[in-house]
Amino acid sequence: MIRVSSGTASVLGLKKIRQPAPPTTAYFLVGERCRRSCSYCAHSKDATTGPAFLSRITWPEFEIGAVREALKEAEASGRIARLCVQVSDSYGAQEESLDVVKYFRAAISLPISLSICPGPGIAGKAKEAGVTTLCHALDAATPAIFSRHRNGEWKNVISHLQQALEYFPGNVSTHLMAGLGETLEEMVDTMVELKSAGIRTGLFAFTPLPGTRSSCGPPPDIGYYRRVQLAHFLINKGVSRDDALAPPEGIIKRWEKSLSTGEAFMTSGCAGCNRPYYNERPGDIPYNYPVKLEKEEAWKELELAMAMKKTSCSWKM
Question: Does the domain spanning 2-306 belong to CATH 3.20.20.70?
């Protein structure tokens, strides 16, 4: 058995769900209740949510053989561009996730991302299993925020990300979560550091989830998140820290053609990942758009970036 995101199950024909933006990556969850106590995670050892939840997403279980057959058909039809195996830090989950990757790799040729906690030798084992992109999530933009919301040390994750580059040059990624109390400057500093190291960054918005330690914290101001996305987009284009932090009006004027496509406000991370409704409910303004924007929509989001608040939020746990 393996847990499959509800949206993925629908795309694979395992479950019927109406969804205006189907996922273009197939998402899987390996492991039980995590041994860590990240304040915002529904899979944390401190959370009171059920094991079928991660973020806002439900992950029903299916027989893995049936899932593999469905993946083969989805690859042939072009419905899925990538697999993403997400792993909790529970006993035996690391080994189980590598077995899952090998099992799927024997049947499909699609890229496979593995999002897993750092551990001794994990990069080499992942490469051998058939992983194409390795992800260790930072989430927090600074060591202090990491310490407040997570277990372990920020510098340890950075070190493992750098080590992973030896096995996956150009294909190491991490996540940053906007809205945990950081400033725009702190977020930009970390994005620049990661980009300089050759590490890809995917952006998330903090989502308060019932049953977690951070359930009472507010989600980030949408204008602030748009400004972070704007900086992230430009940093990936190669601009300097100072240019990424310039007044948005000047940035928009200089990069008008590129920004009017709306690409800056779409889901970022691994290629082929649109991650629909991970941070928001259908009908809400998406933090990360799962589909292409019209030019008029893109300009509305740029206006939000120009109207951002000074910091992401003021709450403390």
Answer: yes
